[in-house]
Amino acid sequence: MTDPLAAAAAAAAVFAATNIDDIVVLTVFFVAARHAGRPRPWHIVAGQYLGIGALVAVAVVVAAGLLVVPDPWTGLLGLLPIGLGIRAVLSRSADDGPPAVVGSLLGVAGVTIANGADNVAVYVPVFRSLDPATGLVWLLVFAALVAVWCAVAALLGGHPRVVRLVGRAGRWLVPAVFVAIGATILVTSGVLTRLAELAG
């Protein structure tokens, strides 16, 4: 019989290890929400749930053998945050505040999916090895930790020092964060190497 506490601890460890970078992205979203009014806080929370839910759903389907993920082509999702960052730079106003890189629930979900596409490679073998009861524990822990991640990011996004930092450097810092995330996704996924091989 599966120990629910051990399963919950393992799920929490895997979630934290694969989603620690989401804290930065969510914090940027919450600071932008305070300054620009978008994305709205509920867009951020719902978008994060939608994005993580989509990643987990894909991992479960792949683990069941019903779908094959074309690795490393998922790395092309890194173009999404890069595009959002560049758009934020090009559309910035004279206002010194952080730009609203995304303004909707689907935008937040898209960034979450792009930032977590590599998580699927970790989740698939895990979900393949879990029995249904343990899998349910993992899903419940993931759902709870999404709420924790959003709460922590909202607190950080309201912290005076964070707000001052982003307020001073937000015009460039926020787009730079998104471009860096996208570049990291492209480089670590191996998609650039694959494209170079095809071009050669």
TrEMBL record:
Instruction: State whether keyword Cytoplasm applies.
Output: no
**Which residue ranges traverse the bilayer?**
6-32, 44-67, 73-90, 102-124, 136-157, 169-192
Q: Which InterPro entries match?
A: Cd-R_transporter
What are the entry keywords?
Answer: Membrane, Transmembrane, Transmembrane helix
Q: Name one Pfam family in it.
A: Cad
How is this protein named in the record?
Cadmium resistance protein CadD (Predicted permease)
